[in-house]
Amino acid sequence: MRILVVEDDVNLNRQLADTLKEAGYVVDQAFDGEEGHFLGDTEPYDAIILDIGLPEMDGVTVLEKWRGAGRGVPVLILTARDRWSDKVAGIDAGADDYVTKPFHVEEVLARIRALIRRAAGHSSSEIICGPVRLDTKSSKATVNGTTLKLTSHEYRLLAYLMHHMGEVVSRTELVEHMYDQDFDRDSNTIEVFVGRLRKKMGVDLIETVRGLGYRIQAPKHAN
């Protein structure tokens, strides 16, 4: 899962980015509205954290431009404690949720998890596909109750497929959501990670759809 953090406070931006990375997300960072708008307009993200009070272009304008261009990515806005009008303006501009400064980063993580789940049609923090359970809160996966020992890339791959369960996901889409903008992307590595993941899972749930990509879905006999 790939997140964009748009915040001009360098320390806060880095704190959010570091926390998100520790939780297993891929993170891009922007420090002003123009840069944030460009990245959100040209790169595919699973969610965006957007400060309202940004230099160059304010957060509400950035959000309005995204929504006006048809960008439906979930957006969590950051607002100042004494500026209730910012919350109203942000929600009216198309924000999905907000957090008031100062805040605990754990709250931001929880809200981001919820936004991504809801966008993919999942209401619970645990996503289940046959014998596989993905706990988005702890960033862990189990098969028949046994915890899978996954690398960060293997977890990201499984998490993306699980969030989009039943859908065919192309190699390009997986690459775009598993690596940040500066990573030397190679879609061939996806095949390697899929192979490793299948071996570790020990169950045949990840299907290769020839010429299109991959799909994870529970066996037809599963409840």
Automatic annotation (TrEMBL):
All copies of the OmpR/PhoB-type domain together span 124-218
Question: Which InterPro entries did the record assign?
Answer: CheY-like_superfamily (IPR011006), OmpR/PhoB-type_DNA-bd (IPR001867), Sig_transdc_resp-reg_C-effctor (IPR016032), Sig_transdc_resp-reg_receiver (IPR001789), WalR-like (IPR039420), WH-like_DNA-bd_sf (IPR036388)
Record-linked Gene3D superfamilies? 3.40.50.2300, 6.10.250.690, Winged helix-like DNA-binding domain superfamily/Winged helix DNA-binding domain
Entry's Pfam families? Response_reg, Trans_reg_C
Keyword terms, alphabetized: DNA-binding, Phosphoprotein, Transcription, Transcription regulation, Two-component regulatory system
- CDD domains xref list: REC_OmpR_EcPhoP-like, trans_reg_C
Output one GO MF annotation: transcription cis-regulatory region binding
Q: Which GO terms describe its biological process?
A: regulation of DNA-templated transcription
- Residues the UniProt record assigns to the DNA-binding region sit at 124-218
Signal peptide position in this chain?
none
Q: Which residues carry this modification: 4-aspartylphosphate?
A: 51
Q: Which positions fall inside the Response regulatory domain?
A: 2-116
Q: Which GO terms describe its cellular component?
A: cytosol; protein-DNA complex
The family database entries (PANTHER family) matched by this protein are listed as: REGULATOR OF RPOS, RESPONSE REGULATOR PROTEIN CARR
Q: What is this protein called?
A: DNA-binding response regulator
Tell me the organism. Rhizobium anhuiense
Upper lineage is: Bacteria, Pseudomonadati, Pseudomonadota, Alphaproteobacteria, Hyphomicrobiales
